[in-house]
């Protein structure tokens, strides 16, 4: 049994949907006629964004609050049994340096980054697969948002972020393989952003160092979404944009066939 097509779903939950890439992906899907719920930690942002993009609704959710995820999944599938897509987009990036000089290395901050970027997507995806998606006769879609920094960790100031996104990449790869072996109709997609203009660098001394106005070679959100939309429409398992397209293809060319052979 083949998984469903990427854009076959009807109702999506987008975490981190109050702004940035989550908001952009949610808005694109709404324009395609999808029913979209956004989730995030700040209700004020969710209310504003939901109204702006005409989202179906919103949920206040901290994906780093792991004990709350099980009850959240039960709540959303009870209230919206037509939910058939999860986009794990919520994430934080913390500059951390073991010996400085520009930033401290806070273990508490690192732990929270791991909870939000790793444990949150893990718990959400597994709970939804086990409790809901695997029971849908028409299949479902899960999109996990990683980063080119999970493939090549060139932003040395973000060691924990880079590692969490490498985790997302490999987890997504193996989740896809496991579901294929289980003859599941659930489609697993990895979205791999390169550097994009957003507020991801808000914890840096210069929060605008990923903006074109500051000389960064970053994509605008519109440029990012143009490539992502094409990848979705092409039903690709791995969807990236700009320079990320070549980087992910290089990984596939070098390791993809080796992975398939060794996984057998």
TrEMBL record:
Pfam families: adh_short
Compositional bias of kind Basic and acidic residues: 198-212
Gene3D superfamilies: NAD(P)-binding Rossmann-like Domain
Keywords on record: Oxidoreductase
Family: Belongs to the short-chain dehydrogenases/reductases (SDR) family.
Top-level lineage group: Eukaryota
Stored InterPro entries: NAD(P)-bd_dom_sf (IPR036291), SDR_fam (IPR002347)
Protein name, UniProt field: Short-chain dehydrogenase
Region called Disordered, residue ranges: 197-216
Family annotation (PANTHER family): DEHYDROGENASE/REDUCTASE SDR FAMILY MEMBER 7B, DEHYDROGENASE_REDUCTASE SDR FAMILY MEMBER 7B
């Amino acid at each position: 049994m083949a998984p469903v097509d990427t854009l076959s779903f009807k109702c999506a939950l987008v975490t981190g949907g109050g702004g940035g890439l989550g908001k952009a992906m949610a808005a694109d899907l709404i324009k395609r006629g999808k029913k979209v719920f956004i989730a995030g930690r700040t209700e004020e942002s969710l209310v504003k964004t939901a109204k702006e993009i005409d989202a179906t609704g919103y949920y206040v959710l901290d994906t780093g609050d792991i004990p709350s995820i099980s009850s959240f999944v039960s709540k959303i599938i009870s209230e919206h049994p037509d939910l058939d897509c999860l986009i794990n987009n919520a994430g934080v990036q913390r500059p951390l340096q073991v010996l400085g000089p520009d930033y401290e290395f806070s273990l508490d901050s690192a732990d929270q980054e791991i909870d939000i970027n790793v444990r949150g997507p893990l718990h959400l995806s597994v709970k939804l697969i086990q409790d809901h998606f695997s029971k849908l006769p028409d299949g479902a879609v899960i999109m996990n948002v990683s980063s080119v920094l999970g493939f090549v960790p060139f932003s040395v100031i973000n060691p924990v972020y880079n590692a969490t996104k490498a985790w997302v990449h490999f987890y997504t790869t193996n989740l896809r393989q496991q579901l294929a072996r289980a003859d599941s109709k659930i489609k697993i997609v990895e979205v791999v952003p390169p550097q994009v203009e957003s507020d991801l660098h808000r914890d840096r001394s210069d929060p605008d160092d990923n903006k074109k106005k500051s000389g960064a070679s970053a994509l605008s959100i519109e440029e990012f979404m143009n490539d992502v939309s094409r990848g979705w429409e092409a039903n690709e398992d791995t969807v990236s944009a700009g320079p990320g397209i070549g980087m992910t293809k290089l990984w596939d060319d070098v390791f993809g066939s080796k992975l398939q052979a060794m996984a057998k």
